[in-house]
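hi! just following up on the protien thing from before. the input was this:
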Amino acid sequence: MSYKLSAVLYGHKADVRGLTVTHDNSIISCSRDQTAKLWKPNGFNAGYTESLTYHGHKKFVSSVYAMAPNSTYPNGLVFTGGNDNDILVFEPSSPTAIHTLKGHENTVCRITNGIESTSVLSASWDKTAKLWSFSDSERRCVLTVSCHEAAVWAVLCISGKIITGSADKTIKVSSSLGSVEKTLRGHDDCVRDLAAINDTEILSCSNDATVRQWSIVTGECLNILYGHPNFVYSIFIRGDLIASSGEDRCCMVWHRQKGDQQSITIPAQSVWTVVILPNSDVVTGSSDGVIRIFSQDPSRYASEEILESFENEVASMTQTAEKQLGGIKVSDLPGVESLTEPGTKDGQTRLVREDNEIICYSWSVADKKWNKMGNVVGGSGGSTETSGKVLYEGKEYDYVFNVDIEDDKGPLKLPYNKSEDPWFAAQAFIHKHNLPQGYLEQVAYFIINNSKQTQPTVQAPPPEFADPFTGGNRYIPGGSSSQAVRGADPFTGSNRYVPMEVSSCDTPVKNEFFPQTTYLRFDQANLKQILDKLTSFNNQVAEEFKLSESDLTRVSKLGESNSSDFTPESIDLLKKLLNWPKEFIFPVLDILRLALRNNTANTALCCDKLTFGYLKDNLQSDSPIANQILSFRALCNMVGHKAGENLIIIQRDYLSEVIGNCSNLSNKSLQIAVVTLALNMCVVFHKNNDVESQSIILLNLLSILPEITDPEALFRALVTLGTILTQSRDLGSCVEKSLIEKYFLNNSDKVRQCSKCVLALLS
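and the predicted 3d structure came back as:
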């Protein structure tokens, strides 16, 4: 048995806390980022593609379960449990919940199958497990099992019996009516998960670092599996394979018949969850927000380049885990889950580990919660005088300013390190001293001026996505997003917006951002690389779709803005390539995106309904992410000429809905493309004084705005809002001020400045 990395799935923005496998071998994950995601097999390699994001929880999502198809629900159902105490129920193909199951009074940390095919069991920190019926006739809790003295972390159903594992260190076997029949004792700490071997035997894992095998008939512990040196959070069994994961940065895989085992080190501190696919591949979800798949089949191993990169990550993480700070070993500290336990007195402090940093929290009796005090940093090894630092409340700072807020009171201390963002430091100061939010800008500029800091600059975004077929950055469709828009774009390049100098804290923010009156285009391209990819894929598609080498060259020349080859024959060749399968079409979409800049091509393509049909097919959430990005970019370039502009107007409702329902927004390049389309559509309707269409764009943009994280995408979204509100201030009632105010703390200057201009329109 030799498991190696097979695939890595990026998409979640925080810890992946739960995984489940569907009947068709798809994977569903849930995360602290308040979402669950559906991942479908690629079909052309061992990887998976993000297909859908399930929304609805108000806090982090801690558990997920996929109900198998049955006579009542032919496609099955998806259940998610959250820190908001709710269980949301989804149809597998829809991002919006069809029902909410309420009843638990604390986090729902586990969901699994119930006694009937249309029922589920849930476990909660409220010390109970619940059986829920979800048939046509009823959707309610039909049984509550209350037999533990602490949080119920795990629940299992075997032959009508309900088995629960708890933080009280016990496992209870209860009847279908909820009465306790057996208590299994042996674990020395919290029981975190359960898995069924057969109708009479189970596995359990615990914070005591063991995995135990039990008979639920006799209550006897039959075996103990050792291997983890720390908390074990998750256990899964399929056939003869057992997989477990925990706080030791490891996933353990045991083969029951052969008796061998393998430890797989993950480059993340907490491996929260593990499942085994039907093909025996092992899937892990961890505290870095990443899902990793490991296989013992060499044909599904990742490339040597990716394997080497993974090993380097593991080595770096191992080195970090050994780090000590002031005599404290980072890896020995508890994680953020320890903050679920209340403090014992006001002001009590607790050190926890977050992303391999030591964070200090303080207990507030009034708020009944742990408040974050800040990072714990190591001393410089000298005194205040010799280190050049200022000691304040046990921590060293580059500056500790005296700030006079009120004449009749003494000055307040404002600590600040040069590595901090001035706006974040200002906000923390305001929160600590309960000052009016209106002081934020004044305090931030006080820090900037007195620490001689320059305001942070926006970093160029990372490469958008690697070529899914050859790896690396050999051909990145559309080029870098930081250079993708030229000419009239006031946000990048030589004409980019440069923040004005701040001469006074009271200087009003000048609006230099909207209304936007020109379209933004995606111009950058490497035509040689695109042609190389077209040639490669041309050799792989069916014979009926192939072109000659000379015809491929003619098609690639459509990407040149000054080409003389915009003939009907060349455009027909491009249309033929648009019939390529989805896994091969992205370089064709890239040429389409470039060709639409030419008036002749734009007219020919936009007047052909099939062209828009191809784009619609590739805008779907189940299309490869590269196809979605390039289709949105093509639509952005389409409006540069009359034919494209008219098509956008005709397709207003459809495109607005696509923007509002976009579900793969963890990809920053997709964020920029989607928001740019919204902005260009806004310009179209601004020119036509079409307020109704502006309102539709506004509502759909607001629905995705909380998911936009890329600074450039955020900026364009704010320019869109400002352009709409400039034309119709009445639409400001649709925008909550708090949504805009949070961007005052963004790392990007232009996002901060533009958000204040938008807010001025809402006043």
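Residues 377-387, 453-474, 478-508 have pLDDT under 50 and may be disordered.
Residues 668-687 form the longest helix (20 residues).
cheers
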